[in-house]
Every structure is written in structure tokens, then in C-alpha cells.
Amino acid sequence: MNDKVALGQDGDPVGSTQGGGGREMVPALFIFGDSLIDNGNNNNLPSFAKANYYPYGIDFNGGPTGRFSNGYTMVDEIAELLGLPLIPAYSEASGAQVLHGVNYASAAAGILDITGRNFVGRIPFDQQIRNFQNTLDQVTDNLGASDVSNAIARCIFFVGMGSNDYLNNYLMPNYNTKNQYNAQQYADLLVSEYSRQLTTLYNLGARKFVLAGLGRMGCIPSILAQNQMDRCSEEVNQLVMPFNANVKTMINNLNANLPGARFTFIDIAHMFEDLLTNYRSYGFSVIDRGCCGIGRNGGQITCLPFQTPCANREEYVFWDAFHPTEAVNIMFGRKAFYGDQSVVYPMNIQQLASF
Length: 355
Known about the structure:
Elements: E1 29-33, H1 74-81, H2 125-143, H3 145-152, E2 156-160, H4 163-170, H5 177-180, H6 183-203, E3 208-212, H7 221-224, H8 234-257, E4 262-266, H9 268-277, E5 286-290, E6 293-294, E7 301-302, E8 316-318, H10 326-338, E9 344-345, H11 349-354
Parallel strand pairs: 1-2, 2-3, 3-4, 5-8
Antiparallel strand pairs: 4-9, 6-7
Helix pairs in contact: 1-10, 6-8
Protein name: GDSL esterase/lipase
Organism: Citrus sinensis
């Protein structure tokens, strides 16, 4: 590329002081998803789904960032393990900042455009893909089409979608979705859309995909707080199981039918089940309430501005009513990167990066 800067090769990467200590395994990491991995894209939207206030980011150098965590999200840890700097939010990234990747994730976003409307402003998956296309056009103008397509094929595309299609659609009383679809029909609808969206990314040049499955959503403090029995809602856990099963089937189909594509699946539900069963051996002591939240299980109202969180947040599995703590995010990120086929299938992120 002579005098041009390539993807993954800018001289002064954003966030280089906080990550990317090792050799870069891939040119860039592109991230799509919801509040589990949003790092500030909703900050300037007219939205009720944002986390750009204390005590969010309390353990993050520089304070609140828009991450729904006390510190790192799962993709922050994965970026670091890949040897990359922390990936900037699309809303804030420009110029050379995009050359190690961009995070398009948006709190309250879903696979379906209609999901999350309770929160007003959010960026659904289809719009996130269009935002990636804008980035691609910008980079291609600067670097040339053939160089960019070769680099994009080596980048990792991390996608974590679907939680809000349940929490902020199917399970919401002001949506009619539950009356239109049973659990399997809804999973079929979601994964049909998901497959179309992922194929669009493939057609834009993506080849290496990491898809995060849905966790044990019946065990989050928000759901626990609705349940007088003070235990996980098996009804909610069963509701999302067809989605995970469908995504695994979809991955097998896409791997077989899209030449050169490699899709891998992170079994978040399995990781969570293991964590909630063996939490003490992982160093946690509190699994049934948010570190920052109000009411039963710290889950009736999520973390409010300037609320005082728990003092021992490294011992909590959940940070607020919906999201895990940094300690869990780092643990899950490492399992996705190094884990065996019981947690990441058919290969882990380290193996995927090496292809």
C-alpha cells in the first residue's frame, strides 16, 4: 500500500494505552449488538437506554463511557486478547480511528426494527449494518477496494443480538408479539431475519463471524425481581432456548453454504449455567442481585445516576438489573477466546483468528 495506511496499521490507535498489548492477530474487530457490548453509541441519542453516567464505568480509566458495566465488556476483553486497542464507538470514531475496527452496538437494539421502542432512540441491527457500510465506503475511498476487501476478509465480526427481542419485545405487555407467536415460531422469525442480516454482512466482505448466544435470561435480577419465589424463571429460560438452537443450526447452514465463511457460536447459556452452579469456585459470592439497582434483587429499577453501588463488585455476577459485572465479562471473553467446544463451537476465537 506504499504511502497509505492499511486496516489495522495506524500508528497511534485509539485506546492503545488500555489494551492491545500483544501482536495483532487480525487487522480489525467489528462489533454489532446491544447493551451487553454497547460502548457509547446511544450517548447522544434521545434514548432512555444509555449509561453515560456514574457509577457506570466506575472501574474504567476515565469514568463513564456509555458501557453498561462497571468496567470492561466482553468485547473489550476479546479485543485485548486479539492484540488490538479498545474498539471505538461508531458515534465517536473518525479518520484513522476506524482502522482497528468499530463498535456499532446500541442498547435496546434488536434483530427486529420494532424491538426496544419503549426506550425511544436505539440503532437496530439493520441500521448497524448500514453504519458499517458507511465505514466501509469511507475506508475504501482512502485505501482502495482490493486492499480493503482482502483485509476485511481477515477481520473478525462479533455479533451479539437477540436479548432485547425477548426482554424488550416478546415479554413486554405493550407488544402484541406473544399473542402472534409461540416460542418456536418467534425463534424461527428471529433467526430467519438474523440469517438475512448476516448474509448481508457476508456480501459486504465479512468472512469470520463470532455469534454470541443468549444467556440464562430467566436468572437476571430484573426477572428475579418479578418472581416472588426468588429463583430463576424457568419459563423465560425455556422461552429463549429455541433461539439458541436455531442459531446453531443456522451457523451450520451458513458455514456450508457461504464459500469462505467461518461462523462460530459462543454458548453464553452454558457459560452462565456453569457460573451460577459453581460461582464460589470462580470467586463470586452474590448471584441473585445487581450490584447497582433498587428494590427486590437490586432488579426492580436499574442503576440510577450517582447511585452508590455495592462495595465488593468483584464478588457480584450482575452489575445492574440486566448486565454482568466486568469480572464476568472478562471471564466470558477469555472462555470465548480460549475455550473448548463445550462453550464455543466449532472453534474458539483464537483458532478463528488464525485461519
